[in-house]
Amino acid sequence: MIKYLPNIYPDELLYSLFCRYNIYSGNITHKMSFNDLYTKRSDVPSQEFVGNLNADIMNILDNIYDIRKICINHTMFQYYARFFSKERKCEALNTIIKGNCDTKNVFSILKRYDIDNYFKYCPLCKKEDIEKYGETYWHRIHQIRNMRICTKHKCKLHSSNIKITGSSYIFYDAQNNTSNNDIVFIDNTKIYNFSKYIEDIFNYDIDFNYDIPIQTILCNVFKNTKYQKGLQRHISKFVDDFTIFYKKIGINNIPTINQINRTLLVGDRFDFNTICLIGYFLNISSYDLVHKVYSKEEIEKENKTHYNKKNTNIKSFS
User: Fold this and answer.
1) Alpha carbon distance 289, 279 (integer Å)
2) Each residue of 173-195: pLDDT tens digit?
3) For the whole model, what pTM was predicted?
4) Using CA atoms, how far apart are residues 232 and 227, in angstroms rounded to an integer?
5) What distance, in Å, lies between the first and last C-alpha atoms of the chain?
6) Interior CA angle at 70 toward 130 and 19, to 5°?
7) Rounded CA gap, 90 and 207, in Å?
8) Are 96 and 77 contacting, i.e. CB atoms less than 8 angstroms apart?
9) E-assigned strands of the chain?
10) Is the four-CA dihedral 39, 42, 43, 47 of positive or negative sign?
11) Which residues of the chain have pLDDT under 70?
């Protein structure tokens, strides 16, 4: 039985709210808090989403905040669903609201690597949180893959020892699982600009009526680069230059040539990280990557040039 639910903070992960609930509830074990919140003990919810919440907590969240807004503004939904089609975005939101789903199937979530596998935090954000709220919390924006600095303070994000994904679900709150690390300011314009780029894309409101395929946006820019001549796309050269570019600015989570092919040419991949890396490399503004408008005729024309099994005239040199 939920006795008290703390207020949720700006950009706070829902998981973080539940971690703070675990502290304030008076429960002496994580299991007790889990039973307060979830339907079945056998569930292993994702820290990035909602999970199969019981009717009690669902009603509380819906009455106070609106469960739809919670899913959009306090989970990683905007990361994983950002570039879905109109129909798929709506279906994904409705599915995670219900909770009893495998989010890996809904979003085709790729495995996290290196520091992105752990909750990240900014020591200056922590200090400000404590001054303003009396405690700190897990910020969504810090958990974006390839996010290496806090754009607000231009300092390095530190990794905690808490995994974002795992086989168990423990309420690891940010207050007691982060330290007052030395503040390391990053005087690197390139990494700052890229971090701000992905942050802006993440933070744009999702328009559930917007339905311009991301493949159309990317390919309309790609065709005017040195990597395409006529219908010949030099993907291998593109990937070589792309990889060198990102390694120079310290980005290590770089998509493979297969992932890039499936995003640009096949059009069946909608991974936020891959799309942002391609968009930034092609000098597509964050606004255009999310809001660019094309006519139906332009979309159909571009789609005809994409590689697929029925269109064997298009060549991609990889």
Assistant:
1) 7
2) 999 999 987 899 999 999 999 99
3) 0.92
4) 8
5) 58
6) 45
7) 10
8) yes
9) 118-121, 149-150, 155-156, 158-163, 228-229, 232-233, 315-316
10) positive
11) 41-42, 166-167, 306-318
